[in-house]
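User: For a benchmark we're assembling, each entry needs the component sequences followed by a predicted structure for the full assembly. Here are entry 17's components. Please fill in the structure.
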Amino acid sequence: MKNRYDVVVVGAGPGGSITAKVAAKGGLDVLLVEKRQEIGSPVRCAEGVSKKGLKKFLPQIKKEWISSEANGARIYSPDGTKVEMAEEMAGSEVGYVLERKIFDRDLAIMSADEGADVYAKTTVTDLVIKDGFVKGVKGRHLGKSFEVECNLVIGADGTESKIGRMAGIDTTLKPVDIESGAEYLMTGIDVDDFCDFYLGNDVAPGGYAWIFPKGDKRANVGLAVLGKHLLKKTVKRPIDYLNKFVKEHYKDGKVASVILGGVPVSRPVKTIGNGIMLVGDAARFTDPITGGGILKAMESGTMAGETAVDAIEAEDFSENTLKKYENKWRPTIGRKNERNYLIKEFFITLSDDELNGLARSVNEVKITEMSVTGLVATLIEKNPETLKNLSKMLFKYL
Amino acid sequence: MINVDRYKCGYCGTCVSVCPEAAIDLLETFININDSMCKACNICVKICPIGALEVPIDEE
Ligand SMILES: Cc1cc2nc3c(=O)[nH]c(=O)nc-3n(C[C@H](O)[C@H](O)[C@H](O)COP(=O)(O)OP(=O)(O)OC[C@H]3O[C@@H](n4cnc5c(N)ncnc54)[C@H](O)[C@@H]3O)c2cc1C
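Assistant: Structure for entry 17:
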């Protein structure tokens, strides 16, 4: 490790690795550090991602990254009413279920191939701040202290998002803005090529349960509960809801991995300061409705990497110059996030009966646009009265 | 003071993200709570997906 870099990227998830790759490709001297000893492990994800979305960032998809392909989705309301979504064109798989242990590590290696220095088992414990500018990081590598100078720090440290806090950005998630999740990688169960979602206050209050097929009788079976509900005495732990769900649906399945994790379902935080930018989950870019954050991390990482290249060229690392980054994400990631945040705020207030009613209104309809927008647009079309307020709120976005 | 059951904890960091005092750190495979910063709001205890954080009974 050198003692000076242009950019230090903290965290080698998809967000950090793409940032490092783009910055290194742009000619910058980049250090990417990851506190875990194995990048990508333990997994904290259901690993679902849209095929089109992924190809935007990685035109060459390696088969090792994919554990299976998904052709559609089924949503079950609390009373079991099924809503099916499938893409119109036959044979076009809409989604991948990834193998993130391999995927995440490969992305970090791709940044190394572009010239970034990569160090695992390396934790950033503090920032060096001089005259109001972030000027470096302090940390531990293999247990030994180190300090590195730099012009820019990128906080890509995921849900924990401590780097932002060290720079004075409040990234604390309120209980209404986080889902607490538990998941098993199950084996020996019957699954097809669809992703399944289950809603209901007995299944996962304020969240949902999912089954994402991983091929070969395997699947990620998990659920997440809204933090706000976990504050109540009557609500159990996510792991308890999961055990109940598994008992009801996959009694004979075996548990090959236990996966835990928090998903931000928040509006983004402030993402820039003098000498610092935040990307991915650290910036709270995760989709508030689906909880999907892999692509948002990669998209924001690309934008932060490009902005870093511009800033180094201009030799200006002030918050004002880094506004370029905010100007990139606000109309894209930010706009979608705001729309889905509004949808989330509406949906978490619905009772089981209301969810059943909505599901019944569309269960005969073939929904061919496999997206939140596609589903919500159909729901509004079928329930103009009940969803009047939602449609008013979303009028700018649909 | 909040206890972490290290045998239960899956070191996922969910508690870290909700702590208003930034008193919690995930040190790769264990959670560390800085008692001098903790204001005992117990949000971390309730958010934990597996129930690894506990308020000792006499303090509840
Ligand atoms: C249960 C669950 C299911 C999910 N399912 C999906 C899904 O199906 N599809 C989807 O798109 N998204 C899903 N997500 C969300 C997705 O996992 C995240 O949005 C995505 O990983 C964000 O990428 P990132 O690079 O921002 O952060 P992360 O992937 O979290 O990477 C952050 C990295 O930073 C490291 N780090 C943290 N602090 C430091 C430090 N101080 N020093 C050094 N390194 C540090 C961490 O160890 C970590 O490796 C799910 C999340 C959970 C919890």
